[in-house]
Specification:
Rossmann fold; 46% helix; binds guanosine-5'-diphosphate; Gyrase A, domain 2; alpha/beta; Four Helix Bundle (Hemerythrin (Met), subunit A); 16 helices; 446 residues; six-stranded mixed β-sheet
Length: 446
Amino acid sequence: MKQREPIVAIATPYGESAIGVVRLSGLGVLEKVLPFVNVKKPRPRYAHLVKLFDEKGEQIDEGIMIYYQAPKSYTGEEMVEFFLHGNPIILKKVVELFLRNGVRMAQRGEFTKRAFLNGKMDLIQAEAVGDLIGAKSELALSSALRQLRGELSQIISPLRERLLNLSAFVEASIEFEEQDIPTLSQEEILRSLQEIEKSIQSLLATVKMGEFLRKGLNLAIVGKPNVGKSSLFNRLLGTQRAIVTDVPGTTRDFLQEPINLEGIPINLIDTAGIRHSTDPVEQIGIQRSVEKLKSAHLILFVAEAHKPLQAEDLYIHSLVKDKNHIVVLNKVDLGLWDGHRERFENFVAVSAKEGEGLDELKKTILETIGTTSGEGLYISIRHADLLQKSLEVIKLLADRIQKEEVSPEILMLYLREAQHYLDELIGEITTEELLGEIFSNFCIGK
Ligand code: GDP
């Protein structure tokens, strides 16, 4: 366990609160703190009620101090945490006191980075700390918590170990060529590779959902003016946010509001009705709607249920039909025109006015997003990138083995490369650059 230079930070958000936390970590941190508190020999992991003084002996505050003896702390280093009155002026004074006395300001995520560097958690778990704090929904929270508990690492580490084992066997067959030691046949290696391939693929299938959970899913409502987009937007939102009128072209710009559908954070976007317009303001709105379509993960194409499609509907449908979309036929309270069944293989008939069909629409949205994959564990883009790279190498090798007898030296090359990406994934090998990238997204004090 390595102890680094002492650092300090406020660990709670800025502003007035009941309690504010200041934490310190690093080599000799207790020694830095003791001159300023009225407890001389704190017991580790014990809540001491202390008075905190500055250099002149003036009291700054009174609160709880906990001392953690290395390595039994979050970072694995010696740590001290103060639970003080949550006044920003007090907390700032405390931090400044330590800054004047040999402690430096912590960088973003530096406590967690040290926990990682000291082997308290692997890189995937350290990332989960950030995800956990930033989680915007129940589902994101539970995924981050499971990742923090190491569940994702427990799927990925064995894959890495299998590659390592294969390498070991192949390496032994090179080194001890003359001797009678057990070796693996090419078929056995191939079978192993195929199993690893399958596991990686099922992990990769969760990345889309993982990104939705982390960043939210953009769901755009499009359709020509007056089909009921704003009414549907309000229905899904549960409040009257968008203005509903029977004058076409009233939504001049797009509206965006967050909603939460079964734990999935969704950015719901009500676009301006797309149509030919000579009004310059409406034109800008329409242009923005077309732009919004491009960034949408899922589109609700809205048309009227009781009428045949018109030229404008057909034009908008042509814009979305090759994208991930759901056909929503609104105003079904006024009837359902038969011709829709012939044109659309699937659609959801709703009445934004009466509320009919809305549960089915929500269900269809969730099914289309594919919430069922991943069993509650979702990987990030960084994970997916490295898994994909590893997968490509494994596939290439599997291909070669199926075509020809591959020499042990070549096998080694491939196996090592595939393993290398998984090493990077769990943080067996890291660079300062990578760590900087990951931990710079954290808040200070974490
Ligand atoms: P937008 O221009 O597509 O956003 O449409 P609005 O939501 O502003 O609605 C246009 C008109 O259609 C308003 O008069 C709404 O009251 C009406 N409307 C919306 N949804 C329904 C529905 O499900 N049934 C009926 N009968 N009228 C609706």
